[in-house]
Design brief:
heterodimer, A: alpha+beta, Beta-Lactamase, 4 domains, 6-stranded antiparallel β-sheet, B: alpha/beta, Rossmann fold, 5 helices, 5 strands, globular
Chain lengths: 732, 149
C-alpha cells in the first residue's frame, strides 16, 4: 500500500504526444532531483565551510519546503507556473551565490547560468531561454561593475557564451520540435484514419481488469456513450456487456491475457438507449520491441444490422417452413377429409398426420355422445391414444377439462403452461405434456366434439398455429358431419331398400297368397252347386268347410299383414318393463295352446328390466313361444326354457327361448324370417310370425338370430334395450 | 287314346287346390290317374326313386307334371331345375300351375325350361275350362315322347 502510494508519487504523469506533457515529464524529474540538491549542498558546506553550516541547513530546509510546494503544484498541473518559478529561483540563487561570492564572476557562475538557460529553454521554450540569457548578461555586467573592476572583455566573452548556449538550446529545441511535430503529424494521421474508420478502436490494459485507456470517438455512435464517458469510467464497457454474454467475455479476456493470443468474438452490449448492440471484437496484444506485452489494441465493428438481418432471415425461414408444413398438412387433412368415408379411419389418419407434421407430443379427437353429456375419445396418437381408445376414454362435456371447455364454449382453449392451468385434467398417460390446445369441432354451427393437441414444450402454440390448426379442425368437423350424413343416408337407403323389398314381397304375396284362398273359395262354390244338384250332402258339407277355412286363412293373412304394416308406424310409448312380467303375460295369453300339451316351461328368475313397447314385445314372445309349441313334434319330454344371457352389451340384454322340438335345418335359418315363407304347410300359420318378430326387435334396436338343427331343438335369441337402471346391475 | 294309362303328377302344397284340380280333371275323365304330392321333397323322391319310392313298378314315370311354384322347403323352381337337369326326366312336360301372375315367376319358370305356365283362375267356371283345355291339349292333342321306365 505504502509502496503503491510512493510509486504513484514518484512516477511521472504518462508521457503523451504533446509538448506540454513532455515538459511536465521533464519537470517531474527535475523536481525529484532538486529534492536531492539541498542535502548534497549541506554535505558540500560541511566539508568546505563548516562555519556556514547553520545558514546552509536553514537554506536547505526552506528549499525542501519550496520543493514540496512546487512538486504538489506540478502534480496539480500548474506546469508553467512551477517552471517559471523554478527557473527564476534557480537563476536568482546562482546570481545571489555569485554576488555573495563577492562578485566573483567565475566559471561556476557561467556554467550554472548556462544550465539554467538550457533548462528555461526546455521548460519554458525559446522566449524563457532568451529572457534568462539576457538576465544573465545584464547580471554579469552588474556584478562586474559592482566588483569595481569591470572587465569588459570577460563580460563580452560571458555574453557571447550565454548567447551561444541560448542559440544551441534554441537550435536543439527546434530540431527536437520538428522531430516531435513529424511524429505528431504521423500520429495525427493515424489517429485521424482511426477515428474516421467505420469501426471503433480501443486500447485496454492487460492488468487492471482490462481498463480502457483509449477509445476512438466513434464509440458514441456505437453505444451512445461518449468517448469521455468511456475514458472517465475505464470499466464502463464491462458494465454495459449484455448479461447473456458478460460471463463468457470476461472469462475469455482473462484467458487470452494469459495465453496472449489474439481475440476475436461476437457479443452483445446494451447501448445508452437500452438497445442491444451486436459487435464483432477483434483485438491483438501489442508488445514492446523486446517482447514485453504492453496493451490490447482492439476494434469493435457494429454487426447489429447483420445479426438482425440474419435473425430475420432465420425467422422468416422458420416461419416459411412452418407455414409450408401447415399448408401441406392442411392440404393432406383436406384430402383425407374429402376422400375418406369411414369416420374412424379419417380421424385416426388426421390425428397421426397432424402429430407427425408438427412434431407434437399427442393429438386426440373427441366426439360428443348421443345425449351430449360426454365426449368420447375417437382417435388418439401413439400408445397413450391406443390405450385410451381401448379403455373408451371419455370426459364429461363440462368446463372442467380443456376439451370439455372448448366444446361447451365452442372456442379454442390454449394452455401454454398446463401446470399453471387448473382446467387441464392431468393425464397420467401423457406425463410430458407442457402445453395444450383444445379446438372445438364445429360444422354448420353444430358442435361435434373437440380436438386436443399437446406439446412437450411450454408455449408451443403461436397465434398462427392456432389459426392453422383451427382451420384443420373445421375441415375435420365438416368431414365428420359429411360422413355422419352419409352413414345416415346409407342407413336410410338400406332401410328404404328393405322396405321396398318388403313392399315387393307384399305385392307379390297379395297376388299369390291372398289369391290362393280366393281360388279355393270360388272353386268350391262351383262344386257346392254340383253337390246340391247331385244331392251329395256329405260332400256339400265338406266343400263348405273348405270355403270357410279358406276364408279364415284369408282373414288371418289380412290381419297379420295389417299388424306388420303397423309396426314402426304405430308406436306405443316405451316404458320400463320387467321381462318376467312380459313372459308371465304371454304364457297367460297362450294358456289355451299349452293346456293340451305336457310341455314343461322353465322361466329364469330375475330377468332384466327392459325398455320398450309392451304390446309389441308381447307379440314377440307370443310368436316365438307359439312356434316352439307348434314345432315341438313328438318329443316325449317337451320342454321350453326362457332366460337371459349373463352379459349386457351396449345397453342390450340378450334373451333366449330354447325348445327341444323338431329344430330347423340351418339352410332355412334365413328363409324363415322372409314374409310368407312357410316351412311346414301342414302346420297352421301365415308366414308372418317370424318376420313380425324380427321387425319388432329391430325397431327396438336389437337383433334376432337362432341356433338350431334338424332334430336338436331350437334356440331363438333376441336382444332388447335394458332400462337405464339395469346398467349398474349385475345380472346372474 | 294311348293304350297305357295316363299318369299325371300334381305337385301342390295347398290341399284344397289339389282337390280342385283332381276333381275337375277326373270329372271330365281326362286323366286316368293323378298322383298328388304336397311338397317338393316328396315329389323329387318319387321322381328320383328314393326312399319309399325306390320300386320302379310302383313309381312309374308321369306323362305330365303339374307344378305349383310356392312350395314349402324345396321351392317349385328348384323342383323344375332338378327335373330339367336330369337327362331322363327332362323330356317330361312340366306345366306350371300357380296363383302367381308375377312376371319374375313367369320368366324364372321359362328360364328353367318349363313347358307351359298357367295361372290358376279365380272362379269355378274358369277353373273348369282351364282344366278341360289343359286335359285336351296335353293329354289329348299333345304327342308324348317315349318314356323309359
Amino acid at each position: 500500500m505504502m509502496m503503491r502510494i510512493v510509486q504513484r508519487w514518484l512516477l511521472p504523469s504518462p508521457l503523451n504526444n504533446n509538448e506540454g506533457a513532455l515538459r511536465a515529464h521533464i519537470l517531474h524529474y527535475i523536481l525529484l532531483f532538486l529534492f536531492l540538491a539541498p542535502p548534497l549542498h549541506i554535505v558540500f558546506i560541511y566539508f568546505q565551510k563548516p562555519s556556514n553550516l547553520n545558514a546552509a541547513l536553514t537554506l536547505a530546509v526552506s528549499s525542501e519546503i519550496i520543493n514540496i510546494g512546487l512538486f504538489l503544484l506540478a502534480r496539480k498541473g500548474y506546469i508553467r507556473v512551477v517552471s517559471i518559478f523554478l527557473v527564476g529561483v534557480l537563476w536568482l540563487y546562482t546570481a545571489l551565490a555569485a554576488y555573495l561570492n563577492l562578485g566573483q564572476y567565475d566559471v561556476i557562475f557561467a556554467l550554472g547560468n548556462a544550465i539554467i538557460i538550457i533548462l528555461a529553454g526546455i521548460l519554458l521554450g525559446g522566449k524563457g531561454s532568451l529572457v534568462i540569457a539576457l538576465l544573465s548578461i545584464s547580471a554579469g555586467s552588474l556584478l562586474i561593475s559592482t566588483n569595481g573592476n569591470f572587465n569588459f572583455r570577460d563580460w563580452i566573452i560571458a555574453s557571447i557564451f550565454f548567447l551561444t548556449i541560448f542559440g544551441l538550446q534554441l537550435l536543439s529545441s527546434k530540431t527536437a520540435r520538428r522531430a516531435l511535430d513529424r511524429t505528431q503529424a504521423s500520429r495525427d494521421q493515424y489517429r485521424s484514419l482511426l477515428e474516421n474508420l467505420p469501426v471503433t478502436a480501443y486500447i485496454s490494459e492487460i492488468e487492471n481488469s482490462g481498463a480502457l485507456t483509449y477509445v476512438s470517438p466513434q464509440v458514441a455512435d456505437l453505444f451512445g456513450y461518449t468517448q469521455d464517458e468511456f475514458l472517465n469510467d475505464s470499466h464502463l464497457w464491462k458494465k454495459i456487456l449484455h448479461p447473456d454474454d458478460r460471463e463468457r467475455i470476461l472469462y475469455q479476456n482473462n484467458a487470452s491475457d494469459a495465453t496472449q493470443g489474439a481475440r476475436e468474438r461476437e457479443y452483445k452490449l446494451i447501448a445508452k438507449n437500452n438497445q442491444v448492440v451486436w459487435v464483432n471484437d477483434q483485438a491483438a496484444l501489442i508488445k514492446s520491441g523486446n517482447g514485453v506485452p504492453l496493451y490490447w489494441l482492439g476494434v469493435w465493428t457494429d454487426i447489429t444490422g447483420l445479426k438482425r438481418a440474419a435473425l430475420e432471415q432465420e425467422n422468416s425461414i422458420v416461419a416459411a417452413t412452418s407455414r409450408a408444413v401447415q399448408l401441406q398438412t392442411a392440404a393432406e387433412v383436406a384430402r383425407i377429409s374429402s376422400s375418406m368415408l369411414d369416420p374412424e379411419e379419417l380421424l385416426t389418419t388426421a390425428v397421426t398426420l397432424i402429430r407427425e407434421h408438427f412434431n407434437y407430443y399427442y393429438v386426440g379427437i373427441f366426439l360428443l355422445d348421443n345425449d351430449n353429456s360426454h365426449i368420447i375419445l375417437q382417435a388418439g396418437t401413439g400408445q397413450a391414444g391406443e390405450q385410451m381408445i381401448k379403455e373408451k376414454y371419455q370426459l364429461e362435456a363440462v368446463s372442467s377439462s380443456m376439451v370439455g371447455w372448448s366444446v361447451v364454449h365452442q372456442k379454442a382453449r390454449i394452455a401454454l403452461d398446463v401446470g399453471a392451468d387448473a382446467v387441464h385434467f392431468k393425464n397420467p398417460l401423457l406425463p410430458l405434456t407442457r402445453s395444450e390446445i383444445a379446438l372445438p369441432l364445429i360444422s354448420r354451427g353444430e358442435t361435434l366434439g373437440a380436438m386436443t393437441i399437446q406439446s412437450e414444450f411450454s408455449s408451443a402454440f403461436s397465434d398462427a398455429d392456432v389459426i392453422a390448426l383451427q382451420a384443420m379442425a373445421d375441415q375435420i368437423a365438416n368431414a365428420i358431419a359429411a360422413a355422419q350424413l352419409l352413414s345416415e343416408r346409407s342407413d336410410l337407403i338400406g332401410e328404404l331398400e328393405r322396405r321396398n323389398a318388403e313392399l315387393e314381397r307384399f305385392a307379390y304375396t297379395v297376388s299369390h297368397d291372398l289369391k290362393s284362398p280366393l281360388v279355393t273359395i270360388r272353386g268350391y262354390i262351383g262344386f257346392l252347386q254340383e253337390d246340391v244338384n247331385k244331392n251329395d250332402i256329405p260332400r256339400f258339407t265338406k266343400d263348405l268347410s273348405r270355403i270357410a277355412s279358406a276364408a279364415d286363412t284369408m282373414q288371418n293373412l289380412l290381419n297379420d299383414l295389417l299388424e306388420l304394416s303397423r309396426i314402426g308406424r304405430v308406436a306405443h310409448p316405451f316404458e320400463d318393463i320387467p321381462f318376467n312380467q312380459i313372459i308371465h303375460d304371454t304364457l297367460e295369453l297362450l294358456a289355451g295352446s299349452f293346456d293340451q300339451t305336457n310341455i314343461n316351461v322353465v322361466v329364469q328368475d330375475n330377468l332384466p328390466i327392459i325398455h320398450g313397447d309392451r304390446i309389441r314385445l308381447l307379440e314377440v314372445t307370443q310368436n316365438l313361444l307359439s312356434n316352439a309349441v307348434k314345432f315341438m313334434g313328438d318329443q316325449p319330454a317337451p320342454r321350453i326354457e326362457i332366460g337371459c344371457d349373463e352379459r349386457i352389451k351396449d345397453g342390450l340384454a340378450t334373451f333366449f327361448i330354447r325348445d327341444n322340438g323338431v329344430g330347423i335345418d340351418p339352410q332355412y335359418h334365413e328363409k324363415i324370417f322372409g314374409l310368407f315363407n312357410r316351412l311346414a304347410p301342414e302346420i297352421e300359420g301365415t308366414g308372418v310370425g317370424l318376420p313380425l318378430v324380427r321387425r319388432i326387435v329391430e325397431v327396438h334396436g336389437g337383433e334376432v338370430w337362432l341356433d338350431s338343427g334338424l332334430g336338436r331343438g331350437s334356440i331363438f335369441f333376441f336382444s332388447l334395450p335394458t332400462a337405464i337402471s339395469n346398467n349398474d346391475r349385475a345380472i346372474d | 287314346m294311348i293304350g297305357e294309362p295316363v299318369l299325371v303328377m300334381l305337385i301342390e302344397d295347398n290341399i284344397d287346390h289339389a282337390e280342385l284340380v283332381i276333381r275337375t280333371l277326373e270329372e271330365h275323365r281326362i286323366a286316368n290317374r293323378v298322383r298328388h304330392f304336397a311338397d317338393g321333397q316328396t315329389a323329387l323322391d318319387y321322381l328320383f326313386r328314393r326312399r319309399e319310392f325306390s320300386d320302379p313298378e310302383t313309381s312309374r314315370r308321369p306323362h305330365l307334371i303339374l307344378l305349383d311354384l310356392r312350395l314349402p322347403r324345396i321351392d317349385g323352381v328348384e323342383v323344375l331345375q332338378a327335373i330339367k337337369n336330369d337327362d331322363e326326366l327332362k323330356s317330361i312336360p312340366v306345366v306350371i300351375l300357380t296363383t302367381s301372375e308375377a312376371e319374375k315367376d313367369v320368366i324364372r319358370a321359362y328360364m328353367h325350361h318349363a313347358n307351359s305356365y298357367l295361372v290358376k283362375p279365380v272362379g269355378f267356371e274358369e277353373f273348369k275350362k282351364l282344366m278341360d283345355d289343359l286335359g285336351f291339349y296335353w293329354l289329348g292333342w299333345n304327342t308324348h315322347p317315349l318314356i323309359k321306365d
